Amino acid sequence: MRRFVIGLVAASTLASQASAAPLQCLSPEERTAFDVQALRSELMVLATGCNDDSPYNAFVKRYQPQLAGNEHSIEDWFKRKYGRRGQTEHDRFVTELANQQSVSGAHLGSDFCPRNGMIFAQVMALHGPAELGPFAAGQNLIPTTADICPEPTQVAQAKSAGKAPKKR
């Protein structure tokens, strides 16, 4: 039993390191902004997929100032990272995020809404806006396939050529 527990701890540590590795280019504040963006996307996918916008609308209403500031931070990050292609890359990221979350939901089938709907209750039970970032980070919603931190040469080429970096 002890070996099983040690193995489980080791596996979870490696998994968390692997999921954090693609995001090493982000500062803690930037990582929080991306986590909140991923949470917002997850909630939007849930609202759309479950045909119930009211929980999502309540979330947006409650956290509107934080969500607006978060969106501004992410837009600024993409502009700094990609120059004039910043908006295009931002749009690509948001679309990719929603698509990945939709695919994950499709794999759950009819269990999707009951299984994931509780996240609305959890986020609305937070004591205030200061808890939104840590809560979002704890959900681990950024797919490992998200190409947030491409290699510097890819970004430089994209800026000079006006093209997005190619995925590997």
Q: Helices and strands in order, then pairings?
A:
Elements: H1 2-20, H2 28-49, H3 54-82, H4 86-108, H5 112-116, H6 118-124, H7 132-139, H8 152-161
Overview of the molecule:
It is a single chain. The protein is mainly α and 168 residues long. The chain is 73% helix and 0% strand. It has one domain (2-161). It is built from eight helices and no strands. Helix 2 packs across helix 7 (132-139) and helix 3 packs across helix 4.
Question: How many strand segments?
Answer: 0
Biggest sheet statistics? none
Separation of termini?
40 Å
Number of helices: 8
Helix content: over 70%
Overall pLDDT confidence: 80
Could you tell me the radius of gyration in angstroms?
Answer: 17 Å
Q: What is the structural class?
A: mainly alpha
Q: What does the overall shape look like?
A: globular
User: Uncertain spans, ≥5 residues at pLDDT below 50?
Assistant: 1-21
Taken as a percent bin, the fraction of beta residues is: under 5%
Summarize the helix and strand pattern as letters.
HHHHHHHH
* Overall tally of domains: 1
Short description, anyone?
By secondary structure, this protein is mostly helical. 73% of the residues lie in helices and 0% in strands. It contains eight helices and no strands.
Question: What structural keywords apply?
Answer:
168 residues, mainly alpha, 73% helix, 8 helices, disordered N terminus, globular
